Amino acid sequence: MQKPNQRLKGQTCIVTGSSSGIGKAVAIAIGKEGANVIINYHSSKEEAEEVAHEISECKLSGDSIVVKADVGKENEVKKIFKAGINKFGTIDICVPNAGMQQDAALHEMTLDQWNEVININLTGQFLACREAIKEFMRRGMRPEVSKSLGKIIHMSSVHEIIPWAGHANYAASKGGIEMLMKTICQEYAPKKVRCNSIAPGAIKTDINKDVWETKEGREQMKKVIPYNKIGEPEDIGSVAAWLASDESEYINGATIFVDGGMTCYPGFTNNG
Q: Which helix (H) or strand (E) holds 67?
């Protein structure tokens, strides 16, 4: 992990779904780089406030606020941005991270299961990106804090390119994020907006805790990871903080896979 060096001092970031897991790690990493952070949560206010407290405890961090919102609802996404702008003046970085799973075999998947995942994972990212770009364009360049008009970092998954049986809704949502990100780049890069994605592989979060908390489960997971290691949320936080900084200024329209090599056909590790 790179040590914080206040690369984002004077900037403000929204991270959706940041009360736990990957979102929490991203919010803390960006906060420790000197940015103000808007921590969004859906149901766990206590966990979100703990994240805010951890950010405030670091002397290098900016300030933080907590905002409850359902990212699948337009008015509630607007509420997140309004709260952030009212408190900090503008938004410089947007990390649409909130996501969910509703797993089922395709022939048994209900329309509600399909719609709920697409709504949170894909529509929620569209809504956050739209509001972010509106604010970037309203505010204009701030060369004293960043070379870019604004930065968007989508939270995708290795399943934007790896099919996942039993998870068609989730995989479809992540594949959609890839094209949303690339299209935003193509459309708004001329205005100095940077838009990229992070695609985590197997990361230790509560979603997959039932697998990695047992030795048998960990060994099974590592079979599809050439690096033979399960990732930590902080691995994603480090990449997000770097992508939000001017150190990565010329990266635009790219997905960075943080997966220990999972996308490199691990089945062929021993000559297939």
A: strand 64-68
